[in-house]
Amino acid sequence: RESRLAATAGVDGTARSRDGDAHMSVWEEWITENGDLGAFEVVSTSTTANLPRPIRMQPALSAERWFTFFEPSTADQPNTEFRMTADSDTVCRAVFAGGIEEDMRPLVWKYLLSIYPWSSTERERQAIDKEKADEYWILKSKWLNDQELKETPDFIEQTSRIEKDVLRTDRTLPLFATDSGFGGGDEANISEHGLPGSSASLEKMKDILMTFHRYDQGVLGYVQGMSDLLAPIYSVYQDEPTTFWAFTAFMKRMRSHFLRDQSGMQDELSTMAQLVEIANPRLHKHLVQCDADNMFCCYRWLLIWFKREFGFEDVLRLWEVLWTDYLTDRFVLFVALAILQRHADVIIDHLRSPEEVLKYVQDLSDTIDLNDALKGAEMCFYKVRFRVNAVEQIRKSRNLPLFVSSISDDEPAAAAAVKEENEESSSADAEVPLMTFEWEDNQNSGSGEKDPLLKGDETPESDISRTPPLTSSRGSILDSNGKEMSPEDAKLDDGTTLPRISEAVHRIFAESSYNEVNSTV
Question: pTM for this structure?
Fold first, then answer.
């Protein structure tokens, strides 16, 4: 690594890109080091932020280590309650850092999915298992034994939808392979019904999803695509009650992805777009030019949490990491960001339309190394947090708005005004991204002058370039005390404003459970 850095450095030691541009930022150094398709690395230079080291390099959580999280049992003091003494953050950190060994997964998942309280005793857990099993069979019997209900249009429609989805889910796996004892083989069924045959596991999945539809009908019910989220959970438990409650817990956090007005996915994609703009302005600018900045290329990734991008076993490992919420409950966005970062050069150099971007991203399926993606996602989190915090520190010190509220879906005129403003802004100053650090700006100017916001020998954390003024069409603007401010109040003395952070991105880091102490390796 040192030799590659030396080869790209100028005579004065300033890092340079492959094209020889000086004052390359830590972000561009990272992208250059990682190459078109190379592994993620942390590049250490004089301009690198003081970021934590990634912890995604530990062994999987074993039974031996798991039991160290509980009260010790001795001959004099037997642990009759078998209650966990470690705090949940310690357990989640262990899972985040290395995953879970296969034989421990069914137990640990119950904690991650809030089926078991972290402080529960062995007796309480046994009671929970029995109570949940009894409740499931009651829920199932309500629709299974109701002949009048089965003749309603909604039930008939949902039965057909669930059957079609389940019979197309993960059929290459032995667990979900056709059993001719359940209605014949594939060839006969496809010829007669257009769908492959079934099996005991698939029939159980149908019943679980119909029970969920009835249980959740007042909120959302079954929506196409949920079968993809059920299959991995069923593969771990392979019994109806436990699978049902684990799936129900998972759907509490995934429900917004399946809203019929698509508002949940719109929020995911718009937040994804700003994360890309913060982490890699060059890539975001190119996506804008390609008309692909709506991030629709990531839709399938985020909708079902990479279920179709990784091998089945890797999906289990990915989901248990995401369930920890160790850094943030939106860590899946950073997994997506890390993968895009790795392929940024290819996208910028070779793709010119939204169709090409979509096809390229979807073709990455089964080619992504999970551990590299998770390590890259962790570094993306630290790097984006560094930039967001740098901006918000300056805003807070000047009593400027910390973030700009998102535009409401029922304000199309405001949205159109923002689009028009952005187009005018980009044509007037196309080289200034939403968030640019001084040493990136110097790449164009070559002046090497410090930003006037800096005093003395301040670090580049406060070194921010200027962006076009905010307008009221952006929505409510809040100062550091949560008070609304007008765009005029938010301006600096020279009439410009600091870079804008969306409310969604602000909340990712404001609500993060990450603790600096816990990052020590």
Answer: 0.75
